[in-house]
Amino acid sequence: MIGASNFFELAVAAAIALFGLQSGAALATVVGVLVEVPLMLALVRIANKTRHHFPAG
């Protein structure tokens, strides 16, 4: 997660510079990151709670 977040500010700046402040690209760049982390944590929690349904190995 740390490696992916190093270029967050650069990605936001590039999206704003290329597409403008009111563009969907700038919004997606910000909102995508804010949604991604809680979603991944929820998926990990579901996987851990249902691990007994799947064979090991």
UniProtKB/TrEMBL annotation:
Entry keyword Transport: yes
Superkingdom of the organism of origin: Bacteria
Cellular component terms per the entry's GO annotation: plasma membrane
InterPro entries in alphabetical order: Arsenical-R_Acr3
Listed GO MF terms: antimonite transmembrane transporter activity; antiporter activity; arsenite transmembrane transporter activity
Alphabetical UniProt keywords: Transport
PANTHER family named among the record's database cross-references: ARSENICAL-RESISTANCE PROTEIN 3, ARSENITE EFFLUX TRANSPORTER
Name assigned to this protein: Arsenical-resistance protein
